[in-house]
Amino acid sequence: MITLASNARPTPATGKNRERWRWWLASVLGLALMLCGCASRSPWKQEAFALTVPAAGEAGSAAHTNILCLRRVTVSPLFAGKPLVYRTGDNSYEQDPYAEFLVPPAQMLEQCWRQSLRAGHAFAGVLDPDSDRKSDCAMEVSVNELYGDFRQPDHPGAVLQMRLLLYSTQPADYGRVLWQREFAKRVPFAHRTPAALVAGWNAGMQASMEEVNTELKHLAVPETGSLH
Fold this sequence. Notes:
Elements: H1 16-40, E1 47-49, E2 67-75, E3 83-87, E4 93-101, H2 105-120, E5 125-127, E6 137-149, E7 157-168, E8 177-188, H3 194-217
Parallel strand pairs: 1-4, 2-5, 2-6, 3-6
Antiparallel strand pairs: 3-4, 6-7, 7-8
Helix pairs in contact: 2-3
């Protein structure tokens, strides 16, 4: 409630004084309504963000002749929605009503991982899940944590935890695990803004992808050369 105080209120009277009184009262009410409207309107604007990967480097020969299919990327239901999630306590989380991803994070991360694997040149090809071509191995990515850690307000961090599984899709060896790895990153950032948080996630994701591509290049896998 807005209270306007005045030591000199006009006294109702007849004729012109009464008209002035009505005008003064209408002006005060109009000002009060305008101020209430401004106060109830949020000063924050809606923001939308996307996770990205660095641009692909120079083309090079693949380390393996195998064809890889990125089967799926799944995100924990706790963090699968579009709003950015902040962890405020050991068991407490908040969703930001003003900052969100452009699309659900699973879709963004799937695109990012596919681009990174293709740019990493560990395999001769990286297929989409609905490709008609046959693959020699497949990868699945599970994202278990994706939040801004604000449990220590002065030391916020972008948390990203993923598990990757690579397995054979050859008929005689289907499902055999060829490689698996878990990555956990916490990237500190100075400014408590959604943009700084997303930049932290991107940095953590880039570091994880570089490690993955390096390991996959040196991975000992049967070279089938199935360029189907």
